Amino acid sequence: MVKVNENYLKFPGSYLFSTIAKKVNAYMIENPDKKVIRLGIGDVTMPLSSAIVEALHGAVDEMGAAETFHGYAPDLGYGFLRETIAREDYSSRGCQIEADEIFVSDGAKSDCGNIQEIFDESSIIAVCDPVYPVYVDSNVMAGRTGTYDEVTGKWSKVVYMPCTAENGFVPELPTEAADLIYLCVPNNPTGTTLTRDQLKVWVDYANETGAVILYDAAYEAYIAEDNIPHSIYEIEGAKTCAIEFRSFSKNAGFTGVRLGFTVVPKELVRGGVALHALWARRHGTKFNGAPYIIQKAGEAVYSEAGKAQLKEQVAYYMRNAKVIYDGLKEIGCEVYGGVNAPYIWLKVPKGMTSWEFFDLLLEEASVVGTPGSGFGPSGEGYFRLTAFGTYENTKEAMERLKKMPSLRK
Ligand code: MLT
Questions:
Q1: Residue with CA closest to ligand 1 atom 6
Q2: Ligand 1 near 255 CB (within 6 A)
Q3: How far, in Å, is the centroid of ligand 1 from the Cα of 310?
Q4: N or C: which end of the chain has fewer CB within 10 A?
Q5: ipTM, 2 decimals?
Q6: Where is pyridoxal 5'-phosphate bound in this sequence (predicted)?
Q7: Fold assignment, 6-47+305-407
Q8: Please, what is the average pLDDT of the chain?
C-alpha cells in the first residue's frame, strides 16, 4: 500500500487564507443582505493598466499567427524580459545582476514555496514571527520541521524571530544555528521595513555563518522612504548570501495573471555548489516557462507608459493605506505599517484574541481582515488590514469601524 507524505498530516488546519474564505462564505450565506468589505487577503482590485492590456492583446495576436506563434517558453524566461528586469530593477539601482541570474516564474508564492527543495532536509529555517505562512508551511510539507505545538503555536525545529511593537518589528539575529533565513521587506504582514543598515547586519551574519537569506521583496514598489532598500543586492555582500523573490502581483496587479521572478546570483555558493545551477536544474525540470503573452505583459510593466500608470496604481492603494492608518489612529488604535507597505497592522482591543477580533469585525461591521495569530504566535493580539481594496470600500469600512463601540477607547 502506498504511504502518503505524513508531513501533511502535521498541519493543525487549512491554509490561513482558505480558512478565512470559508468563514466569510458561511457569514455571507447566513447574512445575504449584508455588504461584506474584504480587507483580508492582499488581493488587488484595480484593473490591469492600459499599457499591460495593450501588450497582452498584441501578444495574443502574435500567438494567433503561424509566423509569430510561440510554443514552450524558454524554461528560465524569455531573454527580452530577463534583460529588461536586469536593467530596470537592478542596474538602475546600482546592483550588478545579470539577466541569466534571473529566473522567470508564475509568481513569488510558488518560488518562495519551492526554493527549499534545493537545500538539505536537515537545514534549520529561521522565520520572522509573524510571517507569511508559505515559508513555514512549505518546509513542513518537506519534513524539515518537527511537530506543531498547539499551546505555543510553534513548530519544533524552527527558529522564530519575534517582530513586535516591543522591538520595533526588527528581528534579532538568531542565537541558535539557522541555515535558511526568510526575510520579507517591506514586511507581510506587519507592513514594517528594515533600513539598509539593519539589513546589512543580516547580510554580514549570513556571510559569516554560511546561512542563506531568502529575501521576499514582493512589496518593494510600495517603499516611499529613501533609507529602505528595494533589493537586498543594494547591500554590499548580498550576492554571496541571498536569493531574492519578486512579484508582479502587487506592483502591477498580476494576482490573476501570474508572473514573478527569482534572482540567484552566480557567486552564491554553499558546500562548493553554486545554488544558481541547482535552481536552474529544478526550474527546468518542474516548470515549463511562464506563458509568452504573460511575459510580454511583464515587459510592458517597464515601458514608460507602464511605469507611469503603475505609479498611479501604487499611489491609489497608498491613499487607502492612509485612510486606514488615519482612521484607526482616530479611533485610538495602536497602528503600524502602511507607510512603505500596503498592509496596516493594528493591536486588537485588550482581552481579545486576533480570531475573536476577526469574528467581531465580521459580525458588527461586515469587514474582513486577517487575524495576526494566523501568521505566527507573535502575531497574536494583532490584526492585518490591506490597502488593496477600492477607495470607496476602504472609506466605508473605516466609517463602519469608527461606529463600533468596542473599538473606541
Ligand atoms: C497575503 O494576503 O498575505 C497575500 O496576498 C498572499 C500572497 O501574496 O500570496
A1: 42
A2: no
A3: 19
A4: N
A5: 0.93
A6: 72, 108-109, 132, 188, 219, 247-249, 258, 288
A7: Aspartate Aminotransferase, domain 1 (3.90.1150)
A8: 97
